[in-house]
Amino acid sequence: MATWQCVKQCGACCHLDPAYRPDLDEYLSPEEMELYLSMVGEGGWCVNFDRTTRECRIYPYRPRFCRVEAEVFEDMYGICPEELNDFAIECCQEQIEGVYGDRSLEMLRFNQAVGYIYKEG
């Protein structure tokens, strides 16, 4: 069974371009939306993402919407804790594919880290 985990120096989730996330208003409060939009920088990347080291500069203090935690996902997306693992894996795969491509090193690293085995058919 695949188990979700964050893969260091990926940063796909730090690509915040609202053009690729049209449903933001469905799960962000007005205050969170304002914060989110203030974090969008050059090329749609988060202003707190260090593109050289590929790490978050504010990771311990990152906003709620940047956290993959059961209570956050239940509140924001209605995902029960039992479904979080599979949902988080799918979200990361979609985001990594959109930012880097489905055959990227980031996708390979993520799938290997979580133990995801692609099944054809």
Automatic annotation (TrEMBL):
Entries under Pfam families matching the protein: CxxCxxCC
Q: Which InterPro entries match?
A: Puta_zinc/iron-chelating_dom
Domain of life of the source: Bacteria
**PANTHER family to which the protein is assigned, alphabetical:** OS03G0363400 PROTEIN
The name of this protein is Fe-S cluster protein
From which source organism is this entry? Chlorogloeopsis fritschii PCC 6912
